[in-house]
C-alpha cells in the first residue's frame, strides 16, 4: 500500500502527528519542501524521479495525487493530515485539485538534483518499458 495513516497524538490541547525518518516512512529524509498557494485548476508535479522517493502529506486542506507506473493510473485523496502517501522512484506523479488552503508537505529521500527528474512523459514510458 502506498497510503498510510499515522497515529494522531492528541489531548485537550490539540493534535500532533510525529514522523520519524526511516521508521515511520521507508527512507531517510534529506529534504523537505511544501507546496501551497496553488492556483485553481493548476496541477503540480507531472514528473517522475530516477532515484528520489517522496512522501506526501496534506498537512492543511486537501488535494488529489495521481500515480502512473506506465501501465495504469491510480488517484489518491489526501484529505486528512494523518494520511501519508509514498511515491516510489520511477512513478509519474501529478498533484491536482488543491483546495485553496492546501499545504502539501513533501519529504524526500534525496537532495534536490534536476538530473534526477524525468519531465518528459514519453521518455518516462520508454524508461519503464525497458
Ligand atoms: P517544480 O519541480 O517545477 O515544482 P512541481 O513539479 O512540484 O510543481 O519546482 C519549482 C521550482 O522550485 C523549480 O525552479 C525547481 C525548484 N525546486 C528547488 O529548488 N528545490 C526543490 O527541492 C524543489 C522541489 C524545487
Number of domains: 1
CATH H level, superfamily name: Jelly Rolls
- The count of strands amounts to 10
Q: What is the CATH third-level topology name? A: Jelly Rolls
**Beta-strand percentage range:** 35-45%
Q: What's the Cα radius of gyration?
A: 15 Å
Main-sheet strand order equals 1-7-4-9-2
Unreliable residue stretches = none
Can you count the helices?
A: 1
Average pLDDT score: 97
Main beta sheet:
5 strands, antiparallel
Would you tell me the structural class of the helices and strands? mainly beta
CATH-level-2 architecture: Sandwich
Compressed to H and E, one letter per element, the order equals EEEEEEEEEEH
| Proportion of residues in helical segments | under 10%
Textual characterization of the structure:
The chain has a single domain, classed as Jelly Rolls, CATH 2.60.120. It is 6% helix and 40% strand. The mean pLDDT is 97. The structure holds thymidine-5'-diphosphate.
Q: Could you give the topology of this structure?
A:
Elements: E1 3-5, E2 31-36, E3 44-49, E4 54-60, E5 63-68, E6 73-78, E7 83-87, E8 92-96, E9 103-108, E10 117-118, H1 121-128
Antiparallel strand pairs: 1-7, 2-9, 3-8, 3-10, 4-7, 4-9, 5-6, 5-8
Bound molecules: thymidine-5'-diphosphate.
Residues 31, 33, 35, 44-45, 47, 112 line the site of thymidine-5'-diphosphate (TYD).
Amino acid at each position: 500500500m502506498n497510503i498510510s495513516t499515522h497515529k494522531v497524538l492528541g489531548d485537550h490541547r490539540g493534535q500532533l502527528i510525529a514522523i520519524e525518518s526511516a521508521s515511520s516512512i521507508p527512507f531517510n529524509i534529506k529534504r523537505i519542501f511544501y507546496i501551497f498557494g496553488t492556483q485553481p485548476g493548476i496541477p503540480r508535479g507531472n514528473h517522475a524521479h530516477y532515484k528520489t522517493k517522496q512522501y506526501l502529506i496534506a498537512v492543511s486542506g486537501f488535494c488529489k495525487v495521481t500515480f502512473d507506473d506506465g501501465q495504469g493510473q491510480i488517484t489518491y485523496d489526501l484529505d486528512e493530515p494523518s494520511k501519508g502517501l509514498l511515491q516510489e522512484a520511477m512513478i509519474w506523479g501529478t498533484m491536482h485539485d488543491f483546495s485553496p488552503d492546501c499545504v502539501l508537505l513533501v519529504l524526500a529521500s534525496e537532495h534536490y538534483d534536476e538530473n534526477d527528474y524525468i519531465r518528459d512523459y514519453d521518455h518516462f514510458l520508454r524508461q519503464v518499458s525497458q
